[in-house]
Amino acid sequence: MDAAFTAEQDEIRRTLREILGKRCGPDEVKAAVRTAAGHDRELWQQLARQLGLPGIAVAEEYGGVGCAPADLALACEETGRALLPSPLLATAALCVPLIAALGTEAQRSALLPPLATGGLTAALAVSGPALATALALTGEDASGQWSGGGRAGGVQARAVAAGAGAGAGADTAGGGWRLYGEAAQVLDGHSAGLLLVAAHTGGFARSRTLLFLVREDAPGLVRSRQTVLDETRPQARIELRDVPAQLLGVEGADVLGALAATGRTAAAVLAAEAVGAAGQALARTVEYVRQREQFGRAIGSFQAVKHRLADLYVQVQAARSAAYYAAWDPDQGGLALAQALEALRVTAGEAIQLHGGIGFTWEHDAHLYFKRAAADELLFGPVHRLRAHAADRAGLFADPAAVRPPDHPAVDTDPAANPAADPAPYPPAQEKVVV
């Protein structure tokens, strides 16, 4: 793997940092999250026009930039530094890969170009606090029970017979689909022009999870913005009251596999974003301790403060290395995300403490990073479950007998039954002589 950045990647990072430095300071962030959209629409359009940010990982044939997901992760490191409130994560990291993987050619041609240019935003809606499970970040559910499982709750889908008045959004073949139920904690769900709704269908006999496309103006759709800890990640509650929907792709597609693949890429993007936030929180803290004086000297000159900052620096740099590796190998995204979220949580907490009394005030900028750390771990973690799932996927704690190849016979470790099992036994222990 060549970890060096290309000239194009360095240029994207430099330009993005310059734009966000001018337009996305702490005061601008606080003002943007209190708008109806939850983000600065003008800044979003500027990023889309100048950098093609929402379409950075979309193929050129669909109007995108045609870069790899690694480029999106590197760009998100810069958005994480500024805590940019935008629909970038929900649109580019969650919905675009699913449409590209599962959508028909007609759906890709109709949806990907406006998503790539920023004219359309999208949100992934799953039932309840099941986003990490749906993306296979903290575990794998081959049955898709998180989508409703045929029981009360979640989102249910039923097919409508042809000619039964499916209405707008129905499939061209047959009568289309209707959705009913609700989903909470939908990232940017209150403002997205397109919803990708994960719904359960088939009852007990043919239980399965499918993805459906729902437009913002669909009849029966009710959206309400929720009060959340981190306002830079606005969330919504989606209520579906017999809403007409269009199936994404075709029946029989591997929806759970596509969600898991999207989860691995999204984990790498989130890890890079968290590293950017942690690095900026550390930089702001270092700048503060250089200026704040106590007993006639800067508190940054105290040895105890130096040690704490050095520990934070090592943790952030280790998380950055893991995030960069995951950007090139998304299979490592879960472990990188765990390390990055932990680094952000620890760094944000230390930033509040090292800022002293002013840092503990709720209005201080350090709390923006602390809220982002806590909210991201609630949405995509917790850290210990991310690590446990990564260990399970790697087989770190698997029974050796369970993973032995079929053509490798078991060896009896009893020396009496199989002397070859212990070809060089240790000599008997010598008795200790006390003089």
TrEMBL record:
<feature type="domain" description="Acyl-CoA dehydrogenase/oxidase N-terminal">
    <location>
        <begin position="6"/>
        <end position="118"/>
    </location>
</feature>
<dbReference type="InterPro" id="IPR046373">
    <property type="entry name" value="Acyl-CoA_Oxase/DH_mid-dom_sf"/>
</dbReference>
<dbReference type="InterPro" id="IPR036250">
    <property type="entry name" value="AcylCo_DH-like_C"/>
</dbReference>
<dbReference type="InterPro" id="IPR009075">
    <property type="entry name" value="AcylCo_DH/oxidase_C"/>
</dbReference>
<feature type="region of interest" description="Disordered">
    <location>
        <begin position="399"/>
        <end position="435"/>
    </location>
</feature>
<dbReference type="Pfam" id="PF02771">
    <property type="entry name" value="Acyl-CoA_dh_N"/>
</dbReference>
<keyword id="KW-0285">Flavoprotein</keyword>
<feature type="compositionally biased region" description="Low complexity">
    <location>
        <begin position="412"/>
        <end position="421"/>
    </location>
</feature>
<dbReference type="InterPro" id="IPR009100">
    <property type="entry name" value="AcylCoA_DH/oxidase_NM_dom_sf"/>
</dbReference>
<keyword id="KW-0560">Oxidoreductase</keyword>
<comment type="similarity">
    <text>Belongs to the acyl-CoA dehydrogenase family.</text>
</comment>
<feature type="domain" description="Acyl-CoA dehydrogenase/oxidase C-terminal">
    <location>
        <begin position="268"/>
        <end position="393"/>
    </location>
</feature>
<protein>
    <submittedName>
        <fullName>Acyl-CoA dehydrogenase</fullName>
    </submittedName>
</protein>
<dbReference type="Pfam" id="PF00441">
    <property type="entry name" value="Acyl-CoA_dh_1"/>
</dbReference>
<keyword id="KW-0274">FAD</keyword>
<dbReference type="InterPro" id="IPR037069">
    <property type="entry name" value="AcylCoA_DH/ox_N_sf"/>
</dbReference>
<dbReference type="InterPro" id="IPR013786">
    <property type="entry name" value="AcylCoA_DH/ox_N"/>
</dbReference>
